[in-house]
UniProtKB/TrEMBL annotation:
Residues 1-384 are annotated as: Uridylyltransferase. It catalyses: [protein-PII]-uridylyl-L-tyrosine + H2O = [protein-PII]-L-tyrosine + UMP + H(+); [protein-PII]-L-tyrosine + UTP = [protein-PII]-uridylyl-L-tyrosine + diphosphate. NCBIfam families: PRK05092.1, UTase_glnD. Has four distinct domains: an N-terminal nucleotidyltransferase (NT) domain responsible for UTase activity, a central HD domain that encodes UR activity, and two C-terminal ACT domains that seem to have a role in glutamine sensing. PANTHER family: BIFUNCTIONAL URIDYLYLTRANSFERASE/URIDYLYL-REMOVING ENZYME, BIFUNCTIONAL URIDYLYLTRANSFERASE_URIDYLYL-REMOVING ENZYME. This is Bifunctional uridylyltransferase/uridylyl-removing enzyme. It comes from the Bacteria. It comes from Roseibium polysiphoniae. Its EC number is 2.7.7.59, 3.1.4.-.
Length: 940
């Protein structure tokens, strides 16, 4: 590779460019003010800039140097500005005898001031004048700016004399930071030197605490805006936690406080070790490589690593696929490990600042330092921690009494976190640094030490704040070393839209949700889980299973099966008995079952419940599985768990419970039907006996077995109203605020395409169906109930929304409103969905139900998919008994319970194959309507 000077010079030949621009003015005696000449000058500059950027991108692809690329682009920009300045000075606004005021220094500030520039970065300039602005200075600045704007650059700029720079720097922290980064580009270097000297003497001196506090408060506010976790799966590479701006903040603070110009000087100052400095440089280089590739790829200043660009960036950076992990997942894991390193460097710098500068009263890390800088409380003398030799506490922060506390007793690397959890201590940054430098002591001997494992399990099952302590252990690197299987999933990203966090962050958050449930802090969201957790025989099993449930992600085999195997290896180490180990392994192997069955099976179908009960086998396991499922879904990300999912889980629990306690044998189907009829009749006292008797005979047995009394009563009143009005269509809308859904009941003459019509109307109005129940009366009416996602907070508003949808369904059934055309044109996969490939898969199963064939269709989610599927099912001459719609990020799983038109299962193998082909095509938007029955209904 060329040396730095040769490498940069190869981007642009500034002297040759100056000569070409000068030659353009020969016919005008060197006067470049003519507009035609300006146009030619701009053309030359554009050509050179484009060529230079092309070279920079090619070299980035060749050597992968992120910092090198940023420095190349900065150098290219420097040279262009120098050439433009010289041309303006010698050919446009020539001054033969310049006065003392007709001087100027062109200075780079902000990120550009650091000598780094991304392809889409702003170019931040400060034009420094000796005194007030002159006509000459105004003209030169204007010429440079307009030329840069015409080159397509976004330029941030200010024109100030030195006195103004100093005064405004004292008043405005943003301006102060910009001047701190000031770098001379061209012009009068004496002005620049005077600015730097006066800035250091008059602004920086004695104001370190003020600056640090301001920068850290600014950083925390930025994190709040971007998301407080550095493990979000679509991170902002510039502004997000662990991104470039965090590294910038670190260096601003170090530069301001330690008066250094380069990062390497922090090693001489004793702030960073040589290895920590290398981590700083490697982190910065990686983040710059990603950012430059991102800008080149998108052609704009894009800072978010969204799903649609992650795979392409991974390919550009040379990542390849490994068994169990995609190339994009390996790239993103590297990204999150770098973000974690940035957090480590933050704590290291904080420790150095505290030991040399200030102490803070409570809290840890740089945020604690910020609070100290604001409030200025005095420190409290350190006191030994009772019962724990080797540790002391000062200002509620735990520290070691000697540098050898871990070398002397490696078990202290686990004990220190147990002490912190038990007493709600924070960790002194110096202690965190010592822990990280002692990680090699976490070896096989410590991992197999019974006392170390007892301490770890006490942390994991703590009634205080286990999530906080586990996160400290993870950030310090201890958790992944002590449990190597956990270390394999640290920073592991799953390339899908369902999971919001990395695997390790999800596991730690799930422990936090579990602790919330146990404390009763979130009973409104899942009251049954909160009630059941206090009845468990062993809460320890639940916490261990929760910690391990996704620990085998990223392996070639199913993570549930592999995770159960990991549990069988780890649980004895954690001190669990053989029976306890079996229960934990079972929970991990089946941790997805309850969610899958609740969301995608007909819970009114007795075989669904019987099969599930046969898998679970005991009430204790059922309790454990319900609580684990709720916590798992809640920890996936904000808004993933909702009241409707909670209701489905509760229904499955209550339906399964009698089977596990023997209760299912007490009432036969015939008795259950009679009880349901009698319950309804008792509520219909205002009906005549003749009406009551006639009504209960209008429903088949299946209806009475699955209907709850409240809904049965509502259906009865709806059907009676239709009879009295001699109508054939009726609707009922009921918002359910707790479940987060709105129920729409449709009564209409039965027709195989009824659900398709309903789905089409919902698609046209943008309503999202999450579940559907189809019933048929003995006199030829269909009683279809759909549940749509709630959109409006107020019940009255949501009811009106539901009524508008019902009205459109009615118009469509009467032939007064057309159904949408084939939806694939309207609902083409857009935005983030383009990043994913989900193969359509159709399963035809006759074993999941005694009465129905179950169709399970999975594929890439899109608007209008349910409409296309139900239309295809109608053309296949199938009756739908119930439909269950589940969405997992970009992947949808739609399940239909169907029969043929005679009410029988689909047993013919050839017909099953046709169903698979038709429905797989429908997932892609190809709906064969050649066999479709007429849509028009005799509804009026």
């Amino acid at each position: 590779m060329k040396n730095t000077a040769e490498d940069l010079a190869g981007l642009i030949d500034a002297n040759a460019l100056r000569q070409r621009l000068s030659d353009l003015t020969k016919d005008t005696d060197g006067d470049g003010s003519d507009l035609k000449i300006r146009s030619k000058v701009l053309g030359e500059l554009k050509s050179v800039m484009k060529a230079g950027r092309t070279i920079a991108e090619e070299r980035l692809n060749e050597d992968g140097g992120g910092l090198l690329c940023a420095q190349r682009l900065s150098f290219l920009q420097d040279e262009l500005i120098r050439v433009i300045y010289d041309f303006a000075l010698h050919h446009v606004y020539r001054v033969t005898n310049a006065s003392a005021a007709e001087r100027m220094s062109v200075v780079a500030v902000g990120g550009y001031g650091r000598g780094t520039l991304a392809p889409g970065s702003d170019v931040d300039l400060l034009f420094v004048l000796p005194y007030k602005q002159t006509p000459w200075g105004e003209q030169v600045v204007e010429y440079i700016l307009y030329m840069l704007w015409d080159l397509g650059l976004k330029v941030g700029h200010a024109t100030r004399n030195i006195e103004e720079c100093i005064r405004l720097s004292k008043q405005d922290m943003t301006i102060r930071t910009a001047v701190l980064e000031a770098r001379f580009i061209w012009g009068d270097d004496a002005l620049y030197e005077e600015l730097v000297r006066r800035f250091n003497d008059e602004v920086v001196a004695g104001t370190s605490s003020e600056f640090i506090a301001a920068k850290l408060e600014e950083r925390d506010e930025r994190h709040r805006r971007q998301g407080t976790s550095r493990y979000l799966v679509e991170p902002n590479i510039k502004e997000g936690k662990g991104g470039l701006r965090d590294l910038n903040t670190l260096f601003w603070i170090a530069k301001y406080h330690y008066q250094v110009r380069r990062q390497s000087e922090l090693v001489k100052k004793g702030v960073l070790s040589r290895s920590e400095y290398k981590r700083f440089v490697k982190s910065e280089d990686f983040l710059w490589a990603v950012r430059c590739h991102l800008h080149f790829l998108t052609g704009r200043p894009e800072e978010r690593l969204s799903f649609e660009v992650q795979r392409e960036i991974a390919i550009r950076l040379g990542y390849t696929q490994h068994p169990g992990q995609k190339d994009v997942e390996r790239f993103m894991k590297h990204y999150f490990l770098v973000a974690k390193d940035v957090g480590d460097l933050t704590r290291i710098l904080c420790a150095a600042l505290e030991s040399q500068h200030v102490k803070e009263p409570r809290g840890q890390g740089i945020s604690g330092l910020m609070r100290r800088l604001r409030v200025g409380r005095p420190s409290v003398a350190a006191k030994p921690v009772a019962g724990f030799a080797g540790f002391e506490v000062e200002n509620n922060r735990l520290n070691a009494t000697s540098e050898t506390v871990f070398a002397d007793e490696p078990i202290n690397l686990i004990r220190v976190f147990q002490v912190a959890d038990k007493n709600d201590f924070n960790l002194n940054p110096e202690l965190t640094k010592l822990i990280r430098r002692s990680l090699k002591l976490v070896d096989r001997g410590l991992r197999n030490d019974p006392e170390a494992n007892r301490l770890f399990v006490s942390i994991l099952t703590s009634r205080n704040n286990p999530e906080k302590t586990l996160r400290k252990m993870n950030e310090a690197g201890v958790l992944g070393r002590f449990v190597p299987d956990f270390g394999k999933v640290v920073a592991m990203m799953q390339f899908n839209m369902y999971h919001h966090y990395t695997v390790d962050e999800h596991l730690i958050r799930s422990i936090g949700v579990l602790a919330q449930i146990e404390r009763g802090d979130s009973g409104e969201n899942h009251p049954l889980a909160s009630d059941l957790i206090s009845t468990l025989q062993s809460r320890k099993l639940l916490y261990v299973a929760m910690f391990l449930h996704d620990i085998a992600k990223g392996r070639p085999e199913d993570h549930s099966i592999a995770g159960a195997r990991v549990a069988r290896k780890l649980c004895p180490r954690f001190g669990l008995t053989s029976a306890e180990t079996d229960t934990v392994a079972w929970l991990i192997e089946h941790h997805l079952d309850m969610s899958t069955i609740a969301q995608s099976r007909d819970l009114s179908d007795r075989k669904t419940i019987t099969d599930f009960a046969n898998v679970v086998q005991s009430l204790e396991r059922l309790k454990l599985l319900l609580i684990l499922t709720v916590a798992d879904i809640r920890a996936v990300g904000p808004g993933v768990f909702n009241g409707w999912k909670g209701q489905l889980l509760r229904t499955l629990f209550y339906e399964c419970e009698p089977h596990l306690t023997g209760g299912h044998t007490k009432v036969s189907h015939r008795q259950a039907v009679e009880q349901a009829k009698e319950t309804l009749v008792s509520e219909l006292g205002h009906w005549s006996e003749e009406e009551r008797n006639a009504y209960v005979n209008r429903h088949y047995k299946a209806y009475w077995l699955r209907i709850d009394p409240q809904r049965a009563l509502a259906h009865a009143e709806l059907i009676r109203k239709v009879d009295q009005n001699d109508d054939k269509l009726a609707f009922d809308v009921t918002p359910h605020s707790f479940e987060g859904v709105t129920e729409i009941t449709v009564l209409a003459p039965d027709h195989p395409r009824l659900l398709s019509v309903i789905a089409g109307a919902c698609f046209a109005t943008g309503a999202n169906i999450v579940d559907a129940q189809i019933d048929t009366t003995t006199d030829g009416f269909a009683l279809d109930t759909i549940f749509i996602s709630r959109e409006l907070p107020d019940d009255a508003d949501e009811r009106r929304r539901g009524e508008r949808i019902a009205k459109l369904i009615g118009k469509t059934l009467r032939g007064e409103a057309p159904l949408p055309e084939t939806t694939i044109k309207k609902a083409s996969v857009k935005g983030r969905m383009k990043a994913f490939k989900v193969e359509a898969d159709v399963l035809v199963n006759n074993s999941w139900s005694d009465e129905y064939t179950v169709l399970e269709i999975s594929g890439l989610d899109r608007s209008g998919l349910l409409y296309d599927l139900t239309r295809s099912i109608a053309t296949l001459n199938l009756n739908i008994g119930s439909a269950h719609i589940s969405t997992f990020g970009e992947r949808v799983v739609d399940v239909f319970y169907v029969t043929d038109l005679t009410g029988q299962k689909i047993a013919n193998i050839g017909r099953q194959e046709i169903i698979r082909e038709r429905l797989a095509a429908a997932v892609g938007g190809e709906v064969d309507m050649s066999a479709a029955a007429p849509i028009a209904r005799q509804a009026s």
